[in-house]
Design goal:
Elements lengths: L5 E14 L9 E14 L3 E5 L6 H8 L7 E6 L2 E2 H7 L1 H7 E4 L13 H11 L5 H14 L16 H13 L5 E5 L7 H18 L2 E6 L2 H7 L2 E6 L2 E7 H6 L4 H9 L36 H5 L5 E2 L5 E2 L4 H6 L10
Parallel strand pairs: 3-8, 3-9, 6-7, 7-8
Antiparallel strand pairs: 1-2, 1-4, 4-5, 9-10, 10-12, 11-12
Helix pairs in contact: 2-3, 4-5, 4-6, 5-6, 6-7
Length: 335
């Protein structure tokens, strides 16, 4: 069996901002968008990061690429600190680690042709010029299922699905090894989104890409990922292989997310109760406790550590074992 190659290691990553709560506020407050996140990613694998809007998953993806500067922790890309890579040769990271943005309409320059959009990175990184660059652009268009004749067209001439294919081609133009996919199909209709997801899986297999796939849709993440991290208010609540997240979830938040997903023949969707707290006012102890039906005073006092339950499954819940065993029943009185 071929030994796996580590592409990315993230250790105790934190990202915070100083913000003012209200237009006329005089003092700034600290907003901890990402708090103590750690994981590893191997070549050819996908880590899915799932959670509600505002949980910090997009900030996490941007921080990994240093589009947002981390305030604590460290990021190691292929055995080297990202800070060291950026200090020696910033373009090296920009070539090897790319991002696919959520909205294909705003992420493409409307004044540039498709050929210029895809070819820009090729030229910046001195990968090809002139006719060779044009041929590479046509090759990339074919790779994502678009006709080479589209090279002289502008973004407004394409559908949303075609635009996202162009975005993917642009990301692949510089031969990356890591791609952060930030809600890449959330702005597309279901049928178009499914085609884009299948395309991404095909390209991953062909090019041995490592993906970080960010979404609020657990079904989509489960379809794409080898491992899933469930994020809430900046922290990972549970991380595990996809099979375990689907069939053996232990954290109440993970279970609630899965229950809230619509299913054919499912009469009633069980939604999460309450609103996600403001990241400017994070609850003490377990940050999910204000919405958790299993919460006790212990949950308000102590932050639950990520505890392993076998086969790499990590859960941040004081009662993960008891909930799974059925010995800790819902109190239905979040504290």
């Amino acid at each position: 069996m071929k030994e796996k190659e580590n592409i990315l290691s993230v250790e105790d990553l934190g990202v915070s901002f100083l913000v003012k709560e209200g237009q006329f506020a005089r003092k700034s407050q600290k907003l901890q968008a990402v708090d103590g996140v750690s994981f590893r990613l191997e070549r050819g694998e996908t880590l899915g990061v799932v959670g509600e809007s505002g949980c910090g998953k997009t900030t996490l993806g941007r921080a990994i690429l240093y589009l947002e500067k981390p305030t604590s922790g460290k990021i190691v890309f292929k055995g080297e600190l990202v800070e060291d890579i950026l200090r020696k040769n910033p373009l090296e990271l920009r070539r090897k680690a790319q991002i696919i943005f959520q909205d294909p309409y705003t992420s493409l320059n409307p004044r540039m042709t498709v050929g210029s959009i895809i070819g820009e990175g090729i030229e910046i990184h001195n990968l090809a010029k002139g006719r060779a660059k044009q041929e590479r652009v046509k090759e990339l268009l074919g790779l994502v299922g678009l006709d080479a004749s589209y090279i002289a067209r502008y973004p407004h001439e394409f559908s949303s699905g075609q635009r996202q294919r162009i975005v993917i081609a642009r990301a692949l133009a510089v031969d990356p090894e890591l791609v952060v996919c930030d809600e890449p199909v959330s702005s597309l209709d279901v049928s178009v989104g499914a085609k884009i997801l299948n395309l991404m899986l095909e390209l991953q297999k062909r090019l041995s890409l490592a993906y970080i796939f960010i979404s609020h849709d657990l079904d989509v993440v489960a379809h794409m990922s080898d491992y899933i991290a469930v994020m809430y208010l900046g922290k990972f609540m549970e991380t595990a292989k996809t099979h375990d997240i689907i069939h053996n979830a232990r954290h109440p938040y993970t279970r609630a997310l899965w229950e809230s997903m619509p299913r054919i023949g499912k009469e009633k969707i069980v939604g999460l109760k309450g609103e996600i707290p403001s990241p400017l006012n994070i609850p003490s102890g377990c940050r999910f406790r204000t919405r958790c039906p299993y919460a006790t005073e212990l949950c308000a006092q102590d932050v639950p550590p990520l505890t392993e339950f076998g086969d790499g499954q990590l859960v941040a819940c004081h009662y993960a074992k008891e909930i799974k065993d059925g010995t800790h029943v819902p109190t239905n009185a979040p504290v």
